[in-house]
Amino acid sequence: MNGGSQSSQQTVTVLGGGVAGMSAACALAEAGFRVHLVERRGYLGGRASSYLHPGVNEVIDNCQHVLFGCCTNLIGFYRRIGVADRIHWTGEMTMIEPGGRRTRLGPSWLPAPLHGIPRLLSAHAFTLADKLALARAFSALLRPIPIDTTENLGAWLRRNGQTHGAIERFWRLVIASALNADLDTIALPYAAKVIRELFMNSAEAGSMGMSTVPLSELYAGAEQFLNQRGSEVVYNANAESAQWNEQSRQWTLVTRRGELLSDFLVPALPFEATGKLLPRLPPAEGADALMGQIRKHEHWPICSVHLWFDREITDLEHAVLLDREIHWMYNKSRLQSWRKLKGSYLELVISASRTFAARSREEAIAQALSELAEFFPRVKDATLEKAALIKEVRATFGVPPGIDAARPHAVTPWPNLFLAGDWTATGWPSTMESAARSGHLAAEVVCAQTGAPRAILSPDMKPRGLMRLVKTSVQHNSTSHHAQR
Length: 485
Ligand SMILES: Cc1cc2nc3c(=O)[nH]c(=O)nc-3n(C[C@H](O)[C@H](O)[C@H](O)COP(=O)(O)OP(=O)(O)OC[C@H]3O[C@@H](n4cnc5c(N)ncnc54)[C@H](O)[C@@H]3O)c2cc1C
Description:
By secondary structure, the protein is an alpha+beta fold. It folds into 3 domains: 11-47 and 214-297 and 401-484, FAD/NAD(P)-binding domain; 104-206, no CATH class; 299-397, Polyamine Oxidase, Chain A, domain 2 (Alpha-Beta Complex). It is 33% helix and 21% strand. The strands form 5 sheets. Strands 8-7-16-17-18-15-19 form a 7-stranded mixed sheet, with helices on both faces. β12 and β13 (258-262) form a beta hairpin. The two termini are 35 Å apart. Bound molecules: flavin-adenine dinucleotide (FAD). Residues 15-21, 38-41, 46-48, 62-63, 65-67, 238-239, 268-270, 273, 302, 392, 395-396, 421-422, 430-435 line the site of flavin-adenine dinucleotide (FAD). Flavin-adenine dinucleotide binds at residues 15-21, 38-41, 46-48, 62-63, 65-67, 238-239, 268-270, 273, 302, 392, 395-396, 421-422, 430-435.
């Protein structure tokens, strides 16, 4: 393993090859640093990756990952590494009831935040009472919400007269599923943020993006980008401990593959891996408080069922499946047409799936198949050729009331060591956008330390239409390095 900084070029070691680590590493390489991106596994992507699944002999994503137009830092990262054109965008969302009746939601010519109203008014999936309840809730969420409110989304929905249909078919399925947690555990400001970004600010902010290639192929662009700038990815190198040398003002990182010397260290790890690393750093005042923050975080699982059929099941690219345990259907044979399948490949996603995750493989696949047949009758005549179940038990962190106090900024008690990771203080829930933001925030702090500050964080998308007149009600916790001091 090489390392060190023989030349005057400053060096950074970024730990973790997830979206946070990759976005920090690429931004820093672009800013002129020599970067080592150290990854425990043999591939990039972290919780958003793909691999050859031995059971089905196919390269599959650990789970379908979607992004939205408002994910400005993730999109900025994709542009930086040259893969933005591999994202397929759609403004439409199809909801299907058991039995097959469809509702299409999506934008119209009306200005934001009214652009979704015409389709909502004609939606079969909601009764008139549901529609009125939703309209009331949306307008209430336009008003300022104190960022430190202790009210959870479930309590707020009950207080705001939401109907059973609105709760089950919209709030639970769309919003709680986007935040991957139960309604009663979601802090209201996070729910309000999702509503504003996805449904109110503009049609562009709410349009949904899906990769047309497997996730690791998408993120392979990051390695090329780094190599072209004299930086490198170090695979299969679990970061075990690090020591700071005050004289040389450098960090020595100890990994399973050897040692690495650098001027800066950026751990971009999940919260539990950060918690394992901290006790293996030199003692520092404030380390205990950081450990205390880490202990407040909790995981939520996501399961996905991957099914290969001998024939086409649906012409839809994706759909929201109502009133059943499976929540989302992604038609991977359409989204990834290069697969050139004779039949079709569907992925079903079950969010916040603590009950589903407890099932055996056979039970889970049987359940998914029988539910899928209620939405798409062709399933009954089709032959299932192969199937895979992926349980991601540590998929995302929850965002209960008060969680912001447990999300640290990039600056730490240690010199030249800055944190990233989706769970750090970005103001965003556990998403690739939060990870990309955290990476960009950490990169900004590193640049500022060298006396060459640089704006790396992409600005938020500006609200359009009438939303330009609405005062921002949800305070963002995402700050640039200037505010972190
Ligand atoms: C099933 C599932 C579905 C999801 N769906 C979506 C979605 O639709 N949209 C969305 O935006 N987000 C989604 N997410 C969340 C999203 O994947 C994460 O928020 C994001 O990828 C986190 O990125 P990260 O870089 O912060 O962390 P990670 O991706 O966890 O990256 C951390 C990296 O550090 C490595 N590592 C750990 N310990 C060490 C060590 N000691 N030394 C070296 N390396 C180490 C890990 O191997 C990993 O590669 C989903 C997540 C899952 C699991």
